[in-house]
Write a structure and sequence with these properties.
The chain contains one helix and no strands.
Length: 56
C-alpha cells in the first residue's frame, strides 16, 4: 500500500502544479492583453486629439 500512496501523492502534486501553471499563464496573458489594450486606447486618444487640434 505504500507504493500506491506515493503514486497518488505524486499524481496530486502534478495536478496541482499543472493547475497553478495554467492559472498563472492565463493571468499573465490577460494582464498583457489589458496593457496592450490600454496602450492602444491611449494612442488612439492622442491621435484623435491631434486630429481635432489640427482641424480648423
Amino acid at each position: 500500500m505504500g507504493d500506491v500512496s506515493v503514486v497518488s501523492v505524486a499524481l496530486i502534486a502534478a495536478g496541482l502544479s499543472a493547475t497553478w501553471l495554467v492559472l498563472f499563464y492565463g493571468f499573465t496573458r490577460t494582464t498583457r492583453y489589458e496593457k496592450e489594450r490600454t496602450q492602444m486606447n491611449r494612442v488612439r486618444r492622442q491621435v484623435m486629439k491631434a486630429l481635432a487640434e489640427r482641424r480648423p
